[in-house]
Each structure stands twice: as C-alpha cells, then as structure tokens.
Amino acid sequence: RFGLREALPSKEFICAHTCLQVLAALEDALAADWTWKRQTSRLVESMTGAKFWVVKKKPTPSRGQRLPNTASSIFKYFAVFPRELTRARAIPMRVRMYSVDNVLHKRLEEIGHQPSGYVAHFEQGVELEHEFDGDRLFFTGVKDVGGHLRSICNHLEAAADSTFMVLPECTVCPTMMEDIKSAISSSPLPPVLCLAGSFHCRDDPSKLPYNRGELIDYRGERVGKVIKSAPASLGMNGQEGISVEETMDLVSTPLGLVGLAICLDFSHPTQAVWEEVEPDWMLVPSMGDQRTLDVHRDAAEKLRNTFNTTSLIANQPAEGAGHPGFIVEKGVEHNEDHHNQVVSLTSK
C-alpha cells in the first residue's frame, strides 16, 4: 500500500514502525525544499538508519501551495522503497533514476488524460549476425541494415503520436541509433517516448558487450537507458554472452513511474524486485518464443492485478518471425493481435 516491500519480521512491524519512520524521514527531506523543482529522487534515512529511495511520481504543488502532511497525500506524489532491495535477489539492486526535463514534462502532461501505446514486431523476422566467445554468443549486427532501418522507420510512422513505443530486444544495433533519433526528431507526429529495443553493445573490445537499450523522446534526445542484468539461455547456441549490470532503471514522469527492463529482467523469478517498486508503467523489449511470452504475461498480470501497472512488451524471436508481444493493463485485454498498432491506454 505504501510502496514498501522490505523483508521485515511481520506486516504489523512494517505498518507500525517502518512506515512511521519513513514518514518522519520524508517530513525532514521535504522541509528543506518540498517542491523538488530540480530533483525527482532522493535518498532519505530514518532514525533507525534504514535508507529509502523517495521518487517523485507526479508534479508536486507549486510553491506557495501547501503539501498536506498526511500519508495518503505524500504517497500520492512519491514512491518510497528500500535502498537495498534484497528480498528478491542475492545481490542488491542499485537504483538508476532518470527525470524528464521541463519541455518533455509539459508534453507528457498534455497527453496525460489519454495515453496510448505501440508494441512493434517485425513480421518478416530479423536476421542477426553473431560471434561466439567460448560457449557464449553475442550479436554483432543486422545483416540487412538498410532494409531493417526502413522497417523501423515504418514502425515509427505507424506509432505516430503514441505516448509509449517499444521495439523488440536485439533489433536496434548501435549504428542505427543516430538515424532513428533523426527520424523521430523530423517526424511531424513522433511517439512521445520510444524505448528503441536493445542490442549487444561492445564498448571495450577486451570485455563482453552489454545488452543495452535507449529511451528516446519525441525530440530525438536520449532521456534514459536500460542495461540487461539477466543473460538468457539461447538453447543449442549456448548462453547469451553479455556483461551484466545490477541496476534498476526508473523514469519519473507526470504520468507516473516508468520502469525499463529487458526480457528476463522483467519476468524471471529472481526479478520480483519490480513488486517492491510498484511502477505505473513497464516498457519491456523482449527476444523469445511462446514460453518466454507466457512468463512475461504471468509477470505482467501479477503487476496489473496488484499495482494497476500497465506493461508494454515488444517481442521478436531470435530466429524467424511470429510470437509478437502484447500490452497488459487493468480492465482491458490486449492480446497478440494488438501489436503494430496504436492502442489507447487507461490513464493512472
């Protein structure tokens, strides 16, 4: 209820002790600058020494207006969760927080009453080039770069004026990013936020690549990124050969808290960390077959039923076509037939 999912001895202890401690810490944090004009997240410490991330979910009242000092009002504007999310994982996750600037903030406020989403799928498949490092495989590029880039631009046109757009995992290689940003910035009706899939990006030739995706706004500017932390098993081809980063990516917007996760980072049992964060929106590029989608759907429905989270999952198999993604939101069933089209979503 309060955005707290810490492994404590009992629910009574959480309600009677932890929440009161966090509220006290919040009062101290808000006292100095409760409008938070330049910040969307802070780390606060309770009297017991426990530390919590406080993330602004929506705009606070302007200066001169009083922010009611009650639990319900505070948690209307802020999401609160423990700094070390240890219940779901052996290794604590670190928070990587992104905030939208004033221009994008205003654009999101304008469309807040009727958001929409678009999950892309390449019907003809995507041919990927790859290399091996022992029994670990990583992708190095797309075979038909020009043709595939045209397909992506066609998706951008089809997603015109949508709020959220998601491209599948490992379908947007780094050499394409500048062209995609240019196509978005020059479009008369671009998607407001586009998670441009992901790809294996090798920054250091001596190390394995990261599976990384970029969040692009309607001006063609990067406003966030996501790096995969759970490598996938690629069947007979071996393990996904990537470096991992133990982070959790959040974007604070006027539409609520947006989570970014690549494939297994969203739905693997060890990734129950999202239940501690309680995001309003999840943007998920994925690469897998029907079994992967079934696991994603279970995770999305659990978040929907518990926290009213809307999940947009764009999927592409590693080989061939088929198995498109879908959107899961409360009160509406969007199945695989709703890919490659703009779908109206329920505002939070």
Protein described:
- The chain has 348 residues and is α/β, with parallel strands linked by helices.
- The protein is built from 8 helices and 20 strands.
- The chain has helices spanning 11-33, 71-77, 102-110, 145-158, 177-186, 264-267, 274-277, 290-307, and strands at residues 41-45, 51-56, 78-82, 94-99, 116-119, 128-133, 136-142, 164-166, 193-195, 199-201, 210-217, 222-227, 239-240, 247-253, 256-260, 281-286, 310-315, 326-329, 332-334, 343-344.
- The protein has a 7-stranded mixed sheet, with helices on one face. Strands 5, 8, 9, 10, 11, 12 and 20 form a 7-stranded mixed sheet that branches.
- Strand 14 and strand 15 form a beta hairpin.
- It is globular and about 55 Å long.
- The two termini are 16 Å apart.
- The model is unreliable at 1-16 (pLDDT under 50).
- Computed CA radius of gyration, to the nearest angstrom: 20 Å
Q: In sequence order, what are the helices and strands, one letter per element?
A: HEEHEEHEEEHEHEEEEEEEHHEHEEEE
Quickly give the structural class: alpha/beta
Report, as a whole number of angstroms, the end-to-end distance: 16 Å
Helicity range of the residues?
25-40%
Low-confidence spans: pLDDT under 50, at least 5 residues? 1-16
- Side by side, the strands of the main sheet go 4-14-15-16-17-18-19
Number of helices: 8
Shape: globular
Q: What does the main sheet amount to?
A: 7 strands, mixed
Tally of strands: 20
